[in-house]
């Protein structure tokens, strides 16, 4: 280990990266699902107004029961609920028991039904706004003290300090109960889970001391109890998802237990938890799928480093073998070495996985990170189990080269060095051809199937990624890389013969050296570089396509950076009601706004000859400003979409019609008569047919015939707003905003509030995109692909340096011979430079080519992640210049680092005395 310690260090780095990446799966999954859970719970609370961690058990009490039976029912319910909730492994935030006499009514003042209520812990969670808290027990004058909320005062018509009489519905002839309102309260905090049911349930509730209600109040013999209720508020934000299955089982068991006991049970969290098994499985599957290429390359890297390490030590192995060491003993030596690395990796890797999860949590896109709170990640037992599995798998990978090497004697070793390898095993078996052929056959069959599924626009996705996309794309890349190194020597020989008379000494040495490397390290490095960069390109294009697809859908459907629906005031003049137009200056001068434009969106009826459409989506625009404000992709129409805007400027009574009109027989130059509300028909001339337009979904389905239920796509028309305004009454329009670079939504909202603008709705594309990008599945995909890319590039740099270090050290004698033959030192350095070009740069360039081809073939298949109807605008593969620049920087750093290392080594080697 000491003799090749730098090689062992590279092996150790590979172990750490491999096991660390495997550890991220359980850690990231737990932390992501935790965040999904919290977000879903918060959404549930916002939508329903109910606290999702609320555990409610209700027991009805018969009016025929005696007081002892009533008290016994309440106590039995409390005991049962305490027992059952103790089995649920979620921290409790609050709990309370409520007993209600719902058969009382007010007979003094405003006659109304009231609920006399006792609630445990009320005094600790109520803030008095008038009067004081009730005193327990029946007062000396025979009355009971009660408190209520402010809304109750209005509902019942009572006041603080007043004394009132209550009569039980079942004891009309009996004496009434006297109560005194001594205080008015409100909940102590808006976020207090104690009041998870909100105050709306207590608009007619008079609160009495809990023990008093069950004691002196019942003992009067003039009262009853209608129901008792236990409410537990669990702190779902502190729930450990490792306990998810046991919690779900406990809740389901409780449902049956309470049903058998004649009690009703509900828990808002139960429906959400039931979906988590599926979401957890999908997230776990996605993370595994995304790591397939990286895991393959890690195995490749470890095998390469292990093989190079063994190559360096084959002489020592042969000496051991010749001195009596058995193959098993030699194998055991290397197994112990790998075992030591594995043990150290097992201890360290899960912590690396934890660090990498924080890396995943702040990803905002591929190779993009933002300064936000990361995931609340923590180590789990599963992280160590996954690390152990990775260590075992990669231990086997690193030991594979040891098996043949451990059988070498000194004689066989010397023979193997002299033996010329004509053709590698993979070449004889045509592994490259098989990989390419298999991936191409699968590609053509799958592409045809996908095309058929999307043909009628009815494809519905399950939202998951097909793992075969990564499996076969990796197969194709690996096969193409192998094919490249198979034919490259022949291409070099052809180049050599073409320029035989012109090559300089360094060029001649470099070309012949690389061309003759039939089974050497050069081919291994070339395969490694071409495959790793191809996978990097493929990962970058995959992530960019999926991210751009989501971003494009948001901006296309919104139409602009911000869309505002303002509040329009109606004005009546002589029995005629009309809208009062808003002041556009108010919106054009908002903070951060670059340009604003009017956009009228309305339903209309339209006819053109025999063609009639009763459900048309009409958009009227200010063409000049609209072209500056609206967001639109340039590949969606035959010519740049600004040309269509110019047409509406040049011919104001023109209209752009959806392609559905053309399919119905309408032609260019035809007149379409449009009717909006109570206005007369307006004649518009068709200038062009378009498939897409900002803010309009051409796939939107509508019912064409109410009787038959026939559906079809909705027709749309786009016309000039200024022309339409002259011939029709004023209609409320939207304001579309183009924001300045660097403008923030917060500043815009603050300015809207400061100017007291009345709005009905604001659609902010940037906020929708932020919400989309914080989706755990998308964030996990971006993080996993980014992480995989960084790891692959790191392995590439290490592999690159390993090759050139070994190459220089092993060729010291060759350089000495060349110097003795008259080759200058500068020519030796030039030879190394040409070898860098022929080995490294050509491999990297081929990696870009292979990665680009694989992206064009396989990335479009990822559109199956989304429903056909949702793919507006269409899914496309579009490389980002920024991604390539980042890769160029990595390549430059790698090559510069390589040259610096080579220069350092060469300076230490006295070539002239080699």
How far apart are the termini? 27 Å
- The low-confidence parts are none
Count of helices? 28
Number of domains: 4
Sheet with the most strands, sense and barrel status: 10 strands, mixed
Share in helix: 40-55%
Cα-based radius of gyration, to the nearest Å: 38 Å
Give me the secondary-structure category. Answer: alpha+beta
Give the total of beta strands: 25
**Bulk shape:** flat
Which oligomeric state applies?
single chain
Portion of residues in beta strands equals 15-25%
Give the rounded overall mean pLDDT.
81
Topology:
Layout lengths: L4 H44 L5 E7 L6 H19 L6 E15 L5 E8 L6 E6 L12 E6 H7 L6 E6 L8 E11 L17 E4 L1 H10 L7 E8 L9 H17 L3 E4 L1 H6 L1 H15 L1 H31 L4 H35 L1 E3 L2 E2 L11 H19 L2 H4 L4 H9 L6 H4 L2 H25 L11 H32 L6 H11 L5 H38 L3 E5 L2 E5 L2 E5 L3 H5 L4 E16 L2 E11 L1 H7 L12 H9 L3 E5 H5 L7 E5 L6 E9 L10 E5 L4 E4 L1 E6 H7 L6 E6 L5 H10 L4 E6 H9 L2 H35 L1 H9 L4 H34 L22 H28 L6
Parallel strand pairs: 3-8, 5-7, 17-23, 18-20
Antiparallel strand pairs: 1-9, 1-10, 2-3, 2-6, 2-9, 4-7, 6-7, 11-12, 13-24, 13-25, 14-15, 16-17, 16-19, 16-24, 18-23, 19-20, 21-22
Helix pairs in contact: 1-7, 1-8, 1-9, 1-10, 1-25, 7-25, 8-10, 8-12, 8-17, 8-25, 9-10, 9-25, 14-15, 15-16, 15-17, 15-27, 16-27, 17-24, 17-25, 17-27, 19-20, 25-28
Question: Could you describe the 3D structure shown?
Answer:
Helices cover 53% and strands 18% of the residues. It is α+β, with helices and mostly antiparallel strands and 914 residues long. The chain has 4 domains: 1-50 and 277-419, no CATH class; 53-267, no CATH class; 431-557 and 767-914, no CATH class; 568-757, no CATH class. The strands form 5 sheets. Strands 1, 2, 3, 4, 5, 6, 7, 8, 9 and 10 form a 10-stranded mixed sheet that branches. Strands 16-17-23-18-20-19 form a 6-stranded mixed β-barrel. Strands 11-12 form a two-stranded antiparallel sheet. Strand 11 (363-365) and strand 12 (368-369) form a beta hairpin.
């Amino acid at each position: 280990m000491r003799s090749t310690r730098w090689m062992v260090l590279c092996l150790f780095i590979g172990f750490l990266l491999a096991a660390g990446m495997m550890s991220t799966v359980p850690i990231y999954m737990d932390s992501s699902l935790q965040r999904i859970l919290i977000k879903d719970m918060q959404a549930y609370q916002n939508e329903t107004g109910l606290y999702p961690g609320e555990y409610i058990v209700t027991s009805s009490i018969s009016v025929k029961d005696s007081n002892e039976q009533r008290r016994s029912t309440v106590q039995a319910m409390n005991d049962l609920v305490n027992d059952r909730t103790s089995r649920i492994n979620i921290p409790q935030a609050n709990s309370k028991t409520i007993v209600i006499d719902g058969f009382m009514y007010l007979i003094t003042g405003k006659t109304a039904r009231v609920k006399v209520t006792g609630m445990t812990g009320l005094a600790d969670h109520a803030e008095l706004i008038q009067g004081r808290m009730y005193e327990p027990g029946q007062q000396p004058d025979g009355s009971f003290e009660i408190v209520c909320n402010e809304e109750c005062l209005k509902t019942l018509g009572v006041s603080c300090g007043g004394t009132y009489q209550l009569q039980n519905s079942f004891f009309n002839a009996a004496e009434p109960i006297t109560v005194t309102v001594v205080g008015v309260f409100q909940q102590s905090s808006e976020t207090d889970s104690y009041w998870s049911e909100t105050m709306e349930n207590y608009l007619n509730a008079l609160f009495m001391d809990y023990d008093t209600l069950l004691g002196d109040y019942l003992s009067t013999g003039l009262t009853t109890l209608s129901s008792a209720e236990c409410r537990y508020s669990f702190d779902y934000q502190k729930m450990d998802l490792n306990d998810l299955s046991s919690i779900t089982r406990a809740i389901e068991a409780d449902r049956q237990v309470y049903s058998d006991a004649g009690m009703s049970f509900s828990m808002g969290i139960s429906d959400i938890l039931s979906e988590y098994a599926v979401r957890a499985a999908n997230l776990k599957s996605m993370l595994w799928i995304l790591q397939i290429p990286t895991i393959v390359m890690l195995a490749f890297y470890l095998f390469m480093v292990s093989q190079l390490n063994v190559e360096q030590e084959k002489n020592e192995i042969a000496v051991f073998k010749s001195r009596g060491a058995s193959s098993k003993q030699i194998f055991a030596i290397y197994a112990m070495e790998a075992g030591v690395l594995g043990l150290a990796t097992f201890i360290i890797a899960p912590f690396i996985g934890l660090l990498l999860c924080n890396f995943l949590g702040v990803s905002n896109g591929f190779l993009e990170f933002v300064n936000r709170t990361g995931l609340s990640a923590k180590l789990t037992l599963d992280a160590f189990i996954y690390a152990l599995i990775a260590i075992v798998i990669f231990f086997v990978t690193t030991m594979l080269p040891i098996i043949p090497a451990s059988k070498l004697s000194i004689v066989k070793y010397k023979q193997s060095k002299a033996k010329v390898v004509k053709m590698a095993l993979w070449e004889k078996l045509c592994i490259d051809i098989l990989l390419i052929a298999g991936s191409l056959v699968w590609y053509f069959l799958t592409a045809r199937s996908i095309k058929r599924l999307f043909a009628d626009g009815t494809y519905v996705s399950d939202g998951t990624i097909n793992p075969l996309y990564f499996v076969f794309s990796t197969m194709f890349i690996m096969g193409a890389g192998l094919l490249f190194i198979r034919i490259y020597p022949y291409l070099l020989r052809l180049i050599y013969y073409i320029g035989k008379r012109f090559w300089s000494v360094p060029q001649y040495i470099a070309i012949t050296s690389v061309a003759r490397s039939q089974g050497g390290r050069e081919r291994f490095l070339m395969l490694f570089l071409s495959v790793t960069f191809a996978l990097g390109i493929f990962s970058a294009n995959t992530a960019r396509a999926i991210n751009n697809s989501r971003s494009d859908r948001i901006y296309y459907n919104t139409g602009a950076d911000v869309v505002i629906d303002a509040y329009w005031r109606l004005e009546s003049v002589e029995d005629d009601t009309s809208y009062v137009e808003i002041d556009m200056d108010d919106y054009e001068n908002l903070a951060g706004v670059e340009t604003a434009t009017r956009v009228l969106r309305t339903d209309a009826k339209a006819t053109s000859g025999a063609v009639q459409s009763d459900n048309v989506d009409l958009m009227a625009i200010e063409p000049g400003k609209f072209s500056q404000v609206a967001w639109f992709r340039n590949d969606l129409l035959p010519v740049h979409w600004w040309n269509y805007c110019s047409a509406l400027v040049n011919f104001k009574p023109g209209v752009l019609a959806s392609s559905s009109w053309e399919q119905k027989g309408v032609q260019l130059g035809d007149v379409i008569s449009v009717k909006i509300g109570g206005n007369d028909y307006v004649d518009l001339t068709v200038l062009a047919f378009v498939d897409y337009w900002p803010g309009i979904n051409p796939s939107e389905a509508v019912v064409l015939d109410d009787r038959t239920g026939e559906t079809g796509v909705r027709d749309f028309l786009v016309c000039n707003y200024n022309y339409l305004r002259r011939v029709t009454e004023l209609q409320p329009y939207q304001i579309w905003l183009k924001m300045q670079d660097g403008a923030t939504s917060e500043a815009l909202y603050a300015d809207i509030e400061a100017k007291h603008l009345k709005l009905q709705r604001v659609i902010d594309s940037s906020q929708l995109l932020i919400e989309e990008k914080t989706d755990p599945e998308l964030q996990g995909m971006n993080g996993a692909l980014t992480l995989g890319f960084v790891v692959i590039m790191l392995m590439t740099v290490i592999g690159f340096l390993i090759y050139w270090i070994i190459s220089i050290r092993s060729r010291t004698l060759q350089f000495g011979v060349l110097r003795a033959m008259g080759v200058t030192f500068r020519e030796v350095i030039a030879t190394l430079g040409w070898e860098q070009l022929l080995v490294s740069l050509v491999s990297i360039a081929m990696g870009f080519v292979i990665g680009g081809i694989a992206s064009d073939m396989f990335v479009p298949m990822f559109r199956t992640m989304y429903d056909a109807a949702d793919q507006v605008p269409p899914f496309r593969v579009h490389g980002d210049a920024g991604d390539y620049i980042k890769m160029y920087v990595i390549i430059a750093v790698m090559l510069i680092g390589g040259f610096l290392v080579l220069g350092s080594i060469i300076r230490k080697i006295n070539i002239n005395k080699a």
